[in-house]
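Researcher: Structure prediction, please.
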Amino acid sequence: MAKGIAAKRLLMTGQVRCPVAIGAALIAVGMLRSGPAVPQNAAGTPPATLQETGLYTDQDRLQVDPAHLAFAPQYPLWSDGAAKRRWISLPPGTAIDGSNPEAWVFPVGTRFWKEFSFNGQRVETRYLERKPDGQWLYAAYAWSADGRDAQLVSARGKRGAYPLAGGRSHTIPGVTDCKACHQGGPSEVLGFGTLQLSPERDPDAPHAELQPEPHVDLGYLVDNGLLVGLPKALLDAPPRIAAATATERAALGYMHGNCGHCHNERGSLQNIGLFLRHSVTNAGEPAAMSTIKQAVKKQAPGQSPDAVLRVEPGYPDRSGVMQRISSRYPALQMPPLGTELIDDEAVRLLNRWIAEKGASIRQASANQGR
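Model: Predicted structure follows.
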């Protein structure tokens, strides 16, 4: 008992820095129950109803259990304009291991919920739970028309869940679709990590959401013993995307939150060399370095022949990145999953970023010629 208390004090004060020592200390206090998740099928069967997942204390009034923490990432994933609410629940007496700031390790029994609403109507709630074998259980629940309960949908998902513009409709993804994104990077948990919960939030982030009380961020998690092992430097100088302008910071942040879970240096698409996930430990901004003046490796079907660069400063219409996020032609569109509509706000933001980038390059060139 005394050894466990001493270990916990070291973790809480940030005096343990070596990953091996952190792991030993976590085991001593019973916080680390399994290793990092490995992309495999999770064991177990999802509950048949959303109520059975433990989200609500009162299903009739849809009262969320106050023990669950509501949170909002600073760069949210856009899903056809859906309004979202999110919660995390950690088993009592456990904590997240943040010793690797790029891929937090969540204790067994961690649960996440993400609720999607359109025009004030709840449509689906997605659910993640870490099982005893270390794998993540994926499930989605479709809400009834009267908004009173939500039932588990098939592992294949559900099309036509809610009508959208242009004759399209929102699709509740299947388990395979969820894993295609969640298992594309260093952590299966998206939207709850070091950059997304940085207190140094981007005021110009597209689709920014108000932080629900109690404003869950890195400081809150560490102060309340829910996150241990995070390098102290990331608390002293909270992470942010380094950029030349506010527009560029927001544009790179958008790509981090909407594209970086697949396009990163560790995922299955790494050979493409398009790295849109921000790193809080490596210098430089990979999203800028791998797009600006970088050649399109392979033309996608439907892409115009003049799109030879991923980002051609000053020429949004000729930039490959813009052509892909501006399309919903299936073979061309990006992201390829999770959206039926074009994200007009993101299109305007990236257009502005590319145009401004060209203007700044021209100005710099003119200054050198004086």
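Model: The first helix runs from residue 2 to 13.
Researcher: Thanks, that helps.
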